[in-house]
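Predict structure. Chain length: 82.
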Amino acid sequence: MRYLSKYLSHLELLVPVLVFISVGLQKWKAGMRDAWKEEATAYKEIAERLQEEVVGLREEVRALREENVQLRDQLNRLLSDK
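Prediction complete.
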């Protein structure tokens, strides 16, 4: 009987500590999961913006190349007229 009461008194101390640790770990895991989810969302938004910027830059480069061809043609015509 004496051992049982001693065992129960240890359990009275141990169980709340284990519950506290368990709840703390669950909150920590949830916080980490939420933080990583926010980071992933932020990187996804950045990637989407960069993709849009790349599309715009490609169009601009294409237009500049076309203009370059036209200017070279004009320059060649001017040089050949002399």
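Summary: The mean pLDDT is 92.
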